[in-house]
Fold these 4 entries.
Entry 1:
Amino acid sequence: MKRITVFCGSSFGTEEIYKEQATLLGKTLAKENIELVYGGANVGLMGAVADGVLNEGGKAIGVLPNFLRSKEIAHLGLTELILVESMHERKTKMNDLSDGVIALPGGFGTLEELFEMLTWAQLGLHKKPIAILNINGFYDALIQLTENMVEKGLLKEVNQQMLLVSDNIDDLLDKMKNYVAPTVGKWIDKEKS
C-alpha cells in the first residue's frame, strides 16, 4: 500500500485518546512510507492525522471542496492540496488516489464516506481494504449493527467481513496489507440464504 485515505472528524470529540491515536496513526503511516490522503483540513482529528504524518517527514495529500475552505480551514503545510467542486468529486478523487481506507471516530460525514467505500467494494467497483480503527470502542455499536444486518438476512457475512476492525494501529495495517477481496456478488438469493 502506497497511500491510505483516512476519514475522520473535523472535531476532536470528547476523549483525548481520539487525538492521540489520530496523531499516532499519522506518524505510523509516515514511518511505513505510506502517504496520507484525507479531507485537507487542519482542524480536529483531520488536522491531527495530517500533522502526525508531516511531523515524521511523510507526505499528506488533502482533497478539499472549495465551499469548505472557510469552514474546515485548509491545512497550509500539506505536500499537496487538491481543490474540488463537490463532495462527490472529493470522494472520487480520494478513492482514485488511495490503496485503502481507514475510518477514525467521526460523525455523519465520516460514516457516509466509510459506507460509500464499503458499498463500492461490495459492488465490485474496487478491491481495496476498508478498515476501522476502533479507538476505545467508538465503533462497537456500529459493528454490532452490521452483525444484526447479517443475522436478519440483509447483508452477506462475506460482505460484513470486508470491514476490517482493530483497536491497534499496527494490527489494523497488517490486516489491510493481507486483505483479499471477496469474489462473491452482493445480492442475497432467497433460495440460497
Entry 2:
Amino acid sequence: MFIQTETTPNPATLKFLPGETVLASGTADFPNAGAGEKSPLARRIFAIEGVTGVFLGRDFVTVTKSEDAPWDHLKPSILGAIMEHFQSGAPAIEGEAPANDGHATHDGPDSEIVGQIKELLDTRVRPAVAQDGGDITFHGFDRGIVYLHMQGACAGCPSSTLTLKMGIENLLRHYIPEVIEVRPVA
C-alpha cells in the first residue's frame, strides 16, 4: 500500500491519501480523541502522541498535530497507523454512518434562502476545500448572517478568515442578495 501525503494551507495539518475509499459518503470530523471513539481509524491515529484532530473524507484522512509536535516524528507513525487500519479490514467508522450531508437543518421563513446557500456550498465551496483536506458546512442563517462550521484542515487554518470573507462571503453575496455576512462557528 502506497499512501501519499499533501500539505494543506494549515501548517498544523497534513492530508493523507491512502489510494482507497475512506468513507463511502460524507465526512467525519473528530476534533479530539473522545470524539473519535466510534472510529477504529481515528482511534489508531489518536494513539500517536501529538495528534490533536482527525478528519475523514471520501478518499483522504486529514491529521492535525499539536504545536510542539514535529511532523518529522509524527508522519511515519501516522502512515503506519493508516496502513495497519486498511490491512485490518476494519471499517473507518463503526455502526451506521450518518446519512446526512453534514449541514445543519433549517426550517422556517428563510428555508428557500438556506437551500440556495447549501447548494452553493455543496457545488462551489466544499469540493475546493476538500482538496485542501477540510470541509465547510452550513450551521445557521439569521438576519442575513450565514454561520459556517470549519472542519479538518480548515479548522484553525491561518487563511480560513480570508477564505471565509474574501471567498465564500463574496460568492454567497453575489448569488444571494439576502446574505450580508459570513461568520465561523466553533
Entry 3:
Amino acid sequence: MLSVGQFFSRHTASFLISLSTVSIAAFAASPGYFLGGLLFAGTYASSTTLLKHRQKKKFMQIAGITKEEYKHIETQLTAANKNIQTLSQNYLRVRSVSAFKQLLEMTRISKNIVKMVKTDPRKFYNVEQFFYAHLPSAVELTDKYTMLSRQPVKDKEIQITLSKTRETLTELNDTIQIDLKDALSNDIDHLQMEIEFANRSNLRRKEQLEWRGDDK
C-alpha cells in the first residue's frame, strides 16, 4: 500500500546512505573494489529494508490499522488488481458494444475503489464484499461470457445463457457502483459536515454585519 513516491524516496535514501558508507570506508581502510562493492550492496539492501519497515509502520499509525490488518488488506488489494487486469483483458475480447461499455465501466469503478482503499485502508471495511464476492464474481462471469460469445456456433441455449449473463453483469455493475458509494460514504458525511459548518459560520457572520449596520 506504500506509494510510488515512497518507493523512490526509500531507494534514493538507500543509495545515498550506501554511497556515504563506502566513501567513509574507502577513506579509512581502502577496502578495494570487491569489498567496497559488497559493502555497498549490503548497506543498500539493509537500509532499504529498514526504511521500508519504517514507512509501513508510519503508514499504519496514520491509518489506524494493525500489522495484521495491513497484511490482509494488502493481500486483498493484490488479488483485486489481478482481477481488474482480467476484466481489462475481457472487455477487449467481447464483440458486443453494450457488453464492452459495461465491462469498461465496471473496470473503471473497480480501479477507483482499489485506489481509495490503497490510500485509506480503513475504507476496506466499508467495501469488504467488493473484494470477497462482487469483483471475483464479475471476473468469473465475464470469463464465461467472453468464452461463449466467441464460439462459432450459437444455438438457442447459448443465446439464452448469454442474455442471462448480460443481465447478471448489469446487476453486478449496479452493485459495484453501490460499493463505490459505500467507499465514499465517510467522505460524503465529512463534506456535508463541513458544508453545514461553513453555512452556519456564514450565517453568523451575516447576522453580525447586519447587527453592526443597525447600530449605526
Entry 4:
Amino acid sequence: MGTGSARFSEFFGSFPTPIAIVTARDREGRLSGFTSNAVCSVSASSQTLLVSVGKGSRTLPAIQESQAFAVNFLSAAGRTASQVFASKAVDKFADVEWVPSRIAEGAPLLVDIALSFAECRVENAVEVSDHWLFIARVEESTVFPREPLLYRRGDYGVWSPHNAGVEELSAL
C-alpha cells in the first residue's frame, strides 16, 4: 500500500531543493522551458544527470526532437523567472537574458540569473507513469559566484551557510 500522492508530495516538499529551469529549442527554432526541482546527478565519472519531464510539458517535444537541453540552476536573482517558467505563459523568455547553447542545439542558457548551467545531450529516455526521465551527458557546464535559490513547501529561500570560511571536509 502506497502513501498516496498528497503524502508523497509532502515527503518531497519537506526538504529544500535547488530550482532549475530546463530549456530546449525545437527544430523550428521555438524556445521552451519549465521550472523543475526534479534534476539530479547520475554519475560523476560519466558526467550524466537525470531530468524528469511531465508528459504534459510543452518542453517535452523539443527535448525529444533535439535530443538536447540545458539545465539552468537558479541563483537568488531567478525567483521571478522560476515563477514565470512554472506558469503557462506564452513567451516565458520575454524578460530574461539568454544566449543559445552551441552544444545543446540552441537551448537557452540563462546567463544573468543562473547559479550554473549545464549543456546536455540525451543518452537515454525512460517512460515512467506520467513522466519521461531523460538521462543526459553534460557536455559543458559553467558555474557563477552567486547564491543559490532554494524551494521548500511552496516558499523560496537563499542558501546561508553556517560554516562560511571553513575548509571543505575532504574525508567524505
